[in-house]
Amino acid sequence: MTLASTSLTQAQPPHAMTGQYALVFFHFSQCAECHHFAPTMKRLEQTTQLPVYDFSFDGQPIPGYATPIPTNSDITAAFFGDLKNAITPATFLINVSNGKYVRLSEGNVPYTELLKSYQALRADVAIMESLQ
């Protein structure tokens, strides 16, 4: 899947992108599961050393993610099709050069499961080629 290029330029993370890949994290400030998942996402961020695009459906922060990027209709449509299809928290691996991405997780998954998903994606030649 590809994220519209206009969305990437409109939604820059709070720090410079250093490399080809980044993590994308969708949440909603009133989502208890998102609050529980945030430390897990921070841990993956630290483990992978990848920057994070932190998107909030209501534009509000959650602990650990103080300056979220508010979603817009283009971003929501690109990742979920329709807002009613969005399950939060949700994570993706994205190629920041071209906007192609793949889903890592939906819901409040444990760190071991999230890391396993990330490692499996990175080891899958077909998936990594599809992100090129």
UniProtKB/TrEMBL annotation:
Lineage top rank: taxon: Bacteria
One Pfam family in the UniProt entry: TraF
UniProt name for this protein: Conjugal transfer protein TraF
Gene that encodes it: traF
